């Protein structure tokens, strides 16, 4: 167990109580802010090398959104840390009853490669805010970012309490043999199962941010150009390598026809006539992933795009029309710049289609008719939902971000991250006096005592009167 | 295959959508309330048969709480289930942003034998309130209550949505191979790991209400008579078979004998001269646990009690003094009427002692010094805490009830049950017009956009 020493070092720091005072946590969080400011250029360069991430995107997701989470946390930490006093019942009227937010101890954050800074940093912010010691395991696939994080994070954070571990599957497996007090994992459902199984051995609670195929229903009554732009933006952001990207479109045959020129127009508006030359369009992260995504092109017919360049790991922004549920593109999460369109007769068929499949991280519905949007919302289940746009629910930190079923368990962002990494401890601080009031609960038990107990403990339905 | 059928039927029933309307949920909860009121005698009889629990005792421990939870949930459900609008930012100012509370699907509740009725009913109430289908698996160890629950629930509730499955380890193992959308398990740490591992195969979230050794620190500066009466109540209720019973005492050696004397006096007050003939004193649930608990007395200094009768699974309220931290009785959760006292010279020593062990489900500290109590809470970790009393945090449903570390994960009671069994779905609804504000995020990028 090569990491036993590291984990036990962090555990000793944890037991020393170092991470508990608010001032300490604020100082570490402020240091993270300096990391984002001072290493901004390096972050843009590393993510560009890793997956051709356009610098606008990298700035937006890896720096700006992270700074927002940081500021929300710094602004509210003292409030979040306070004991939360709760309503009391008759018996506890004179007591102090509150929920204490305790750190868990030593937590592990495992991050993926597609938003390699954001997806470890935002959980890390919450973990530090909640008072834990943290081991961060960035993805080895985004290797330039991995190196950046491994080399520079320790210059900002207290290395008694925060460590970065690098490596691949073997290293992660070794790491998971250790006992952690919480594990936060972002990645695929299959690895999610492995992580949860390892966590079960130590009864470690987990948050799993996984994935799936996010459906996007477009109704017949909609503003076609706007839909096209919002869908194109969400699908091709980071060359499609986004867990909440609209994975496939569901619409009627007529709408598919209407959408096509609008989609083409939007793609050209965003990336120019040759997206390969646009600085605003990314690349696939690695050869293995490139091969996998390229195979999915044999689905339906290529209506727009379809060009690839293996040397650059470039796949053009592609729209596939008339895709069948049995086609390759409909068998797995695409995670690439390909948008299949599956034709359905109507909204009911679209809803049935969605419900016949594992619950996704996000469901999208576009319609000028709010009733349609609400129907899709009410009759489906997913981690989150966005009506008439894509991705945007992620940017509002007052909304919990997480999956359901195969797309994950747990949630975070904003205060939800702080709550995820805290144990909510129910505390009742009673009065040593007034012992007479306790008499009805003690043996010997009598009907009279029971009557008294019932009177003091019982919760009555409003509108029901009890005669003395 | 039987399990597959039962769970499959529950899932089909859930997919039909009928468990979702508030009306339906409240109607089912009302039916549960009727069941508890109409079948009170039968419920008390089953509890007596399983645990030798007397009428008023059983009523106050298992029925009162259930009725209270039902009343609370029925009243609050409309407000809990309503979509919760959230604070918006500049970019979403004109949008609708809220959290929608939705059912998870098919929930599995595995009960325990020590409070066999309430530990099945309280989670069930929360799961129904959240709109789920629920498979109920009561503990086979408390067989009379298990049989009663299996008989009664289908008489009052929708039998497809809320089936009861009975059986032991093989049946539970088979049940756990099925896919659920949440599992709430009450029981021991070892089985908790098995449940979580099974859940991991389906990525099923779990709430594990486990156990451990809940420490009870008595400060020199406290009203010993009052403290000991409260501790005696919590320790010996249900013959010590309570997950949040004070498992062992930590105190200064100078007050150890006073503590013993006070507890002895209280025991006399509660159960009379002949404990065995008191209708208010329970029995150990079965021979296996009887032998296990008796084994913990080996080599110990018995300051009081120690009498037993295997035929009736009777173990007298027992106090052990000068117990060594390395002894068997200090290794596992006692879950019996045996109270070890371990002496410590200071509160620091008590805190270190507690922190060197697995995180317990509950922690108790008695002191007149408020600062000391606050310190103990701040420097330790546990599922929950009651200061200057025991057990009582369980009865305040606004407090989340659950463990941490080996004592469990997740929490329930009151609104916390509703939240445990719901999915909080983030919803953002935008206007399909108003495209101008979106333009700043679209490529091609310019410095101005940034």
Automatic annotation (TrEMBL), chain A:
<dbReference type="InterPro" id="IPR016161">
    <property type="entry name" value="Ald_DH/histidinol_DH"/>
</dbReference>
<dbReference type="GO" id="GO:0004029">
    <property type="term" value="F:aldehyde dehydrogenase (NAD+) activity"/>
</dbReference>
<feature type="active site">
    <location>
        <position position="243"/>
    </location>
</feature>
<comment type="similarity">
    <text>Belongs to the aldehyde dehydrogenase family.</text>
</comment>
<dbReference type="InterPro" id="IPR015590">
    <property type="entry name" value="Aldehyde_DH_dom"/>
</dbReference>
<feature type="active site">
    <location>
        <position position="209"/>
    </location>
</feature>
<protein>
    <submittedName>
        <fullName>AL3B1 dehydrogenase</fullName>
    </submittedName>
</protein>
<keyword id="KW-0560">Oxidoreductase</keyword>
<dbReference type="InterPro" id="IPR016160">
    <property type="entry name" value="Ald_DH_CS_CYS"/>
</dbReference>
<dbReference type="Pfam" id="PF00171">
    <property type="entry name" value="Aldedh"/>
</dbReference>
<dbReference type="InterPro" id="IPR016162">
    <property type="entry name" value="Ald_DH_N"/>
</dbReference>
<dbReference type="InterPro" id="IPR016163">
    <property type="entry name" value="Ald_DH_C"/>
</dbReference>
<dbReference type="GO" id="GO:0004028">
    <property type="term" value="F:3-chloroallyl aldehyde dehydrogenase activity"/>
</dbReference>
<keyword id="KW-0520">NAD</keyword>
<dbReference type="InterPro" id="IPR012394">
    <property type="entry name" value="Aldehyde_DH_NAD(P)"/>
</dbReference>
<dbReference type="GO" id="GO:0005737">
    <property type="term" value="C:cytoplasm"/>
</dbReference>
<feature type="domain" description="Aldehyde dehydrogenase">
    <location>
        <begin position="19"/>
        <end position="422"/>
    </location>
</feature>
<dbReference type="InterPro" id="IPR029510">
    <property type="entry name" value="Ald_DH_CS_GLU"/>
</dbReference>
<dbReference type="GO" id="GO:0006081">
    <property type="term" value="P:aldehyde metabolic process"/>
</dbReference>
From TrEMBL, chain B:
<keyword id="KW-0597">Phosphoprotein</keyword>
<comment type="subunit">
    <text>Homodimer.</text>
</comment>
<protein>
    <recommendedName>
        <fullName>Aldehyde dehydrogenase family 3 member A2</fullName>
        <ecNumber>1.2.1.3</ecNumber>
        <ecNumber>1.2.1.94</ecNumber>
    </recommendedName>
</protein>
<dbReference type="GO" id="GO:0120553">
    <property type="term" value="F:farnesal dehydrogenase (NAD+) activity"/>
</dbReference>
<keyword id="KW-0472">Membrane</keyword>
<keyword id="KW-0175">Coiled coil</keyword>
<dbReference type="InterPro" id="IPR016161">
    <property type="entry name" value="Ald_DH/histidinol_DH"/>
</dbReference>
<keyword id="KW-0560">Oxidoreductase</keyword>
<keyword id="KW-0492">Microsome</keyword>
<dbReference type="InterPro" id="IPR016162">
    <property type="entry name" value="Ald_DH_N"/>
</dbReference>
<feature type="transmembrane region" description="Helical">
    <location>
        <begin position="97"/>
        <end position="115"/>
    </location>
</feature>
<dbReference type="InterPro" id="IPR012394">
    <property type="entry name" value="Aldehyde_DH_NAD(P)"/>
</dbReference>
<dbReference type="Pfam" id="PF00171">
    <property type="entry name" value="Aldedh"/>
</dbReference>
<comment type="similarity">
    <text>Belongs to the aldehyde dehydrogenase family.</text>
</comment>
<keyword id="KW-0812">Transmembrane</keyword>
<dbReference type="GO" id="GO:0006631">
    <property type="term" value="P:fatty acid metabolic process"/>
</dbReference>
<keyword id="KW-0443">Lipid metabolism</keyword>
<dbReference type="InterPro" id="IPR016163">
    <property type="entry name" value="Ald_DH_C"/>
</dbReference>
<dbReference type="GO" id="GO:0005789">
    <property type="term" value="C:endoplasmic reticulum membrane"/>
</dbReference>
<feature type="domain" description="Aldehyde dehydrogenase">
    <location>
        <begin position="2"/>
        <end position="424"/>
    </location>
</feature>
<keyword id="KW-1133">Transmembrane helix</keyword>
<keyword id="KW-0520">NAD</keyword>
